[in-house]
Amino acid sequence: MTNDCLDIFTRPHHTLASTVWHAPDRMTRLECSIESHPAPAIVCGLRDLRYVMVNRSFLALTDSADEDWLRRSMYERNILEGVANYAAVKRALVNAQTIPQTRTSLAMPDGTSRPVIVTGQPVTVAGQPCMLFTLTDIEAWQQTERHYDQLRTSVETAFATSTACMMIVDPADNFVTVANDSFCSLIGYSRSDLSGRSTDDIEIWPSGISSGFVRTKCGQRLECRISEATIMIADKAYAL
Prior knowledge:
The structure is a single chain. The protein is of the alpha+beta class and about 240 residues long. Helices cover about 30% and strands about 25% of the residues. The chain is built from seven helices and eleven strands. The strands form four sheets. A five-stranded antiparallel sheet has the order 2-1-5-4-3, sandwiched between helices. The protein has a two-stranded antiparallel sheet with strand order 6-7. A two-stranded antiparallel sheet has the order 8-9. A hairpin with a 5-residue loop joins strand 1 (about 40-45) and strand 2 (about 50-55). It is elongated, with a radius of gyration of 27 Å.
């Protein structure tokens, strides 16, 4: 989101043809940018340190309404109050400099607090210098990480223990990334024997893997029915 806002407001020759929103003024465009992005965001004017914009995600995170933040001063609701390096963050804010990711306890309107990661990016709104703050809910982020770890573990377990003979291949070089136990048992090679070997290896696939013939370690030639699917691992495509 911060990159989108920078594209719109800090590049003097940036064309708006590539943006989703076509609005008559800068403030409307920034409102569209922060409202259409799922990350919680709030904008503070640097001249009087009052909040001028807030998106729905931020209000949902804080369980609050527009009037709890808009036109209120940072002295009244300081989202940076709990940062460890407060002096350096305050200096960056005053000098309209980028505030790197830092952990803080966000004061909620009901008096409680929530641990978050906050980032600040200077922007210009209607000709006025502002700071765009984006937040990450640490608890939600940790829950997502735990869910991802559980999912990855279950997928790895299913792959390793499946009775179907499977291997994962990097299509960039056709090298085997990993093979499961069933595949290794079929052809008599260990995982380490297969990892890093090309699917064009004449010793294992004398006619190429797509032919459906595989040669075991003891020299037996087996005919197999082969199917292929694309899977994503860490945002990279692999062949299964």
